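hey so i finally got around to running the thing on that chain from the lab meeting. sorry it took forever, my laptop kept dying and i had to restart like 3 times. anyway pasting the input first so we r on the same page abt which one it is
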Amino acid sequence: MEKYQTPEQYVQSRIDLLKNASHRYTIPRWHKQPNYVEVWIEKQALANTFSSFLKGLDVRIVVNKGYSGWSFLHENCIRLRGVKRSGKEIHILYFGDFDPSGDDMENHLNEALHYFGLGDVDFQRIAVTEEQIGQFNLPPMPNSKETIDKVNNDTRKNGFIRKYGRLYIVELDALLAIVPDEFKSIVQESVDQFFGRGIYQNVLSAHQPDIIDRLVQEKVKFI
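ok and heres what got predicted. didnt touch it at all, straight out
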């Protein structure tokens, strides 16, 4: 229930808001940045983990949930075309399983972006990669017979083996389970590589609190 205010209290609260305007005013982190970054992940179960890793970095997290439907991809492409019209360079950072379906899924998403008229977009697989499997000593195969049998029946298996020389079944969750700190760094650094700190500092310099305070004084003479 909304708390009652007298007219005098209401007016004073609005005046106080103006007096503290310089403390409340914020600038979008990516304002005037030439790059636009989104993080796409394969699994809904990791959405909260990615949200915590990327807190404060102001990037959109898109969960594609495996082989996404055309309506999902079309809606995202429409939104991204709007970003492209603003002149920013789009970077989509992809996090998914490293197995025959996961590898093909990456191609599926990349091709769909072109199909729906988005044009050239920087689409990067950040994890899991073949290099990370060796670097962090990730188990290349699971213990689950059910998972192995499923992949053995995957029609993409032979093409995957020809491409990488062997069969891998490494889920994205493995990075979180085995090397959580390194995984967090990988996620954060993949985004930070496109953020211009010098640009951001220049923007902050042009929006100092005293500028806001002066504008308040100019606009509302009686404060």
